[in-house]
Structure prediction request, 1013 residues.
Amino acid sequence: MLQLKCISLLLLFTGLELHAQYKNETGAKRCPVTTINYEQGLVSNSINGVITDGQGLTWVSTSNGIQRYNGYTLQLVNPVIGNDTIHINYPVFFLKGKTGSILIGYKKGILEYDAENNSFRKIISIADSDRISYSLMPLKETVEGIWCFEQNKGVVIFHNRNEKFDSTPTVENHNVSGLIDGEEYNISRKLVVINNNFLFVRASINTILQINTVTHQSSIINYPESKILGLECDDQKLFVASYDGISYINIADRILSKKILFKLVPNVAQVSRFSIQLSSDHHLLVSVERQLYEIDISCSCKREIISLTREPLLNSGYIQIVYEDPFQRIWLLTNEDIKRIQNAETPFGYIFYPNQKDRFEKALYYDNENGNLVACTYSGSAELYDSAGNTLWNSPLKDKRIINPLNIEKISKDHYLLITGQDWYDLNSKEKKFTKVNIRNRPDTLNSSYYNNVQRIDDSIILIGTKTDVLRVLVKKDKFEIIAGTISKSAINNRMISCFVYTSDKSLWAATLSGSIIKIDSTGKFINVPIAQKLIRVMVEDDKHRIWAGTDNGIYVYNTAGQLTNHFTRNSGLLSEIIYSLEPADKNRKGFFASTHFGLSYISDEGKIINYTREMGLQENEFNTLASTKSSSGKLFFGGVNGITAFYPSYLSVKRDSSEINITRFMVNDSLYNLFGGAWEKDSIRLPYNRSRLQFDIAASGLLNPNEYVYNYRMRGSETNWQTTNQPTNIRYSLQPGTYTLEINCSPILFSTNTLVKKIAIIIDPPWWETWWAIVSSTLISILIIFGISYYIIRERYRMKLRKLEISQQLVNERERISRELHDNIGSQLSYISSNIDWLVDMPESFNKEDEKKRLSVVNDTAKNLVDDLRETIWAMKKESINLDELADKLKSFLQSQFILHPQVETVIHENIQGKYKFSPTEALNVFRICQEAISNSFRHSQAEKIFLTIQSENDKVYSITIEDNGKGFVRQQQYNGHYGLENMTNRARESGAKLVIDSAPLKGTKISVSKS
Prediction:
C-alpha cells in the first residue's frame, strides 16, 4: 500500500514536471499524408489489421476480406494454392513470420504468403472451422511452433507438424479467450504484444497476463490505474495506455515509471480511442482520438505529427490502429478510411503567422546579423520570424499606407527599408512601427515597376531600381541620399526598366519591358542585348559570371559578352516557364532554385532539372515575384500565396529511401492477370505466344508515394531507348516470341541520389511449330518427304524409262510380228490370189464360165479379207496405245458388217465402260482377232438366231469382252488341235496376258470371253 502511495506521488510530481516540459518541447512534425478510401478501392471502412510485406506492398484486413495496396489502388486478394482459390470475406489477422513471410490467420487455419515468390501455402488447418466466428490470430512464431489466439480456447501453440498443443495455465485461458468476443479485440490486436521472451495479454481491465514463451510459465501483472486501453513493449519495457495517459513498466522488476497524461495533450478532453506502436527509430507512435504523437520511450511527449499544410490528420472520427512498416510509413486505420504518412519530416519548412488570413508573401529579407527573417504581405502586413521560422511578434504589424511592397533591405540594426511602388518606409522591428523615409535629392519620380529589385553594393551604398533608372543611394544612420542614376538617357532611350543586377566585374545589367537588356560596364560603355521575351522579372549572376534571366518564357543564360549560351524551358524539364525568382543553391552560386506558379525547380550547373511541388511540403505551388532571400547559412526562403517555404538545399539529398519496385498491375491481352496464382516466379514470367499483349503498372513502394519518383524503363530485346515518367501506368507492349528483360530504375524526385533498380525477365514462348523440337522434327520429316518424293520420282522415271523401253521393244516386236503376219498371212493370201489369177490366165479349156466365175469369186473374197486384215493391222500399227472404247468401237463396227451379210441373225450389244483400259498395239490386235474369230464363227458355223456382244470395264486395270450365241454349239475339248481358229484364239490370249474362256455344249450355244483382272 505504501508502495502504491509512493508511486502515486511520483506520478503527480512527474505530471507537473511533464506539463512544463510539454509546453516547451512539444512541436509539430510535418509529414506528407495520403488518404486511401473507396476511391482507391477500399471495400469497407471496418478495418482491423494492417501489415507490409517484403516488397513494400501493404495488406489490410477488412470486414469483407483481404486487400493489398499497390500504391495506386487496393486490390482484393483471394489466395490461390495449387488449383484451389480460397475466398475470404471476413476479417483476418496478420503476423510477420520468422523468414520475412506474412502469416495470415483465417477461420480455417493459417496461410503463409511468400512475397518473393508471390505464392501462398497452407501451414495450419483447424478441424470444425465452421463453428468458429473469429479468425485464428497468430501471435508469435518460435522454433517450437506458432503461438496463436483461438476462439474459446485462448493461447495455444500449433507445432510445425500441425498438431495443437496448449501450454498456458487453464485457469487463465477462460479470461483470455473472453477477449475474442469483445469489440476492442475485434477492432485491433492492441491488447496483445510480444517481445523476444514474453507474450503480454490484457486479461482484464486492470490485469496483464505475462507468458514466458521459452519456459511456458505465466504470471499476472496488476496495473493500479484506470482501464487499460492498449499495450506495447520492447525487451525492457512494457508500455501501458489507459484512460489517463501512458506509463511504462520495467519488465525486469515490474516497477511502474513515468507517465504522460492525456489531459495535458491539447484538444483532448476525454480518451475513448487509443493505439500505440514502437517505431523503427525507437519512439512511440501514439494515437489519441484523431491526433497522432511521437513520444520517446521515456514517455516525454516529443511532438505531434501533422500534415504538410498543418491541417488535422482527421477532421472527424477517430484513429483505431497505428502501424509503422519497415519503409518508415505510418498507416492509420480510422473508422472511415486509411491514412498513409511518410514518417520522415519534409525538408521544406512552412512559415506563416497562424492567425493571419493574408499569407500572400510579397517581399522577404533575411537579416544574418540578427538571425531574423523579415517579411511583408501584399496588403502591407509586416512579419518577423527567427531563424527556425518561429514568430517573434504576437501578431503582424499592419499599416494602411503599405500597399504592394516590392523589396526589403536592411539599413541599420533593427531598421529595414521597405520599398513600395510609390514610397519608401523605415520599418523599426524593435519598436514595431513604420516611418515614411525623407529622401535628399529626391528625383521627380520614385515609381518602381511591379518587378523591380534592390541590391546592396557595400555597407553604405544600395542600388534601387525604378521604372526609369537604377538609383545609387547612400545610407547613413537611417538617412538616405540619392547620389545619382546609373543609366544615361541615351542608354535607356525612353524604355522602362523591370529589374537589374550589378555584377562582380562592376557591370550593370538592366532589363527593359521593350524586349532587351542593357549592359553598362564600369567605364559607362553600354551595349543592347536582344531577348525575344519582353517580360524579365529577375536577373542573377552565377560563379562563371554568366547572367541568368528569369522571364515568362523560361530562363535565358548569357555570357559576359551578352551572348546567349542556354535557354531552359518546359521542354528542358521546368515545371513552368514563368519564372518569379532565382536563388543560388550554394555559396559558390553553382545551380539555382527557380520559383514559378507550378512549384520550385532546381537547375544544376550541368543543366539537370529537379522539380518540387506542394505535395512535397511547399506552401503552395504558386510563388510571388522576387519574394525570395537567403541566409548566410545557406537556408533559402521563398514567399508564395500561402506563406513562406524555407529549406536547406543540402537537406534535399540526405534522406535514404529503401524502396522496392513492383509490378502492381499486369494485364495480358486486356485481361487482368492473377498475380496471386503462383505463375509469377520471383522476377520472371513465362507466357504462351498467343498471350503477348502486355500492360503494366509500375510502382516504387517505399517511403514516398509512387508518383514522387522518376521512373526510367525499357523493354530490352524490344527497344533500346529509355522511357521516362513519374506516372508509370498503362505501359503497353506487344511482343513477339522471345526472351525480354523489363529494366526499371527510379529515384525519388526529392532525393535524386537514391536509385532503385529492378529487372524482370519476360519469356514469350513460341508456338509449338516454332519450338526447337518441332523445327528438328519438321526438318527430319521434310528431309524424309523430300527423300521419298525424290525416290518416287526417280523410281517413276526409271519405270517410265523401262516402260518406254518396253513399249519400244514391244513396237519392235509388234512390227516384227506384223511383218511376219504380213509375210505369212497376207503374203500367203496374195500368193493364193496370184496363183488363182495365173490359173485363170492359163485355165484348161474344159472349164466353163460357171467354174471360172466361182474361181473369181473366191479370189475376190480372198482379196477383201486381205484388205480388211491389212486395214486392221495398219490401225494397230499407227498407235502406241489403244483405249478400250476404241477397241469396242472397232468390234461393234465389225459386228455390224457381219450383220449386213447375215441379216437373219439378231445382234445384241451391252456396253458398260467405266474405266479406260489401255492396250498395247499387239495386245489390242490380239484381243480384236480373238473377238473377230469368235464373231465370225457364230455367224458362219453356229446357225444361231442371236448373237450377244458384251463389253465391260470397272476401272483402268480390268476389262471383259464376251461373245455369246444361241447356236448349235459344240463339244468342248482340252485341246483344239486341227481347229486352227480356236487354237489361234488361245495362242493370242496367252500372248496378250488375257484370260480366254470358251464355254459351249451341243444345242446349248457358245460363250467365249476374253478378260483381264
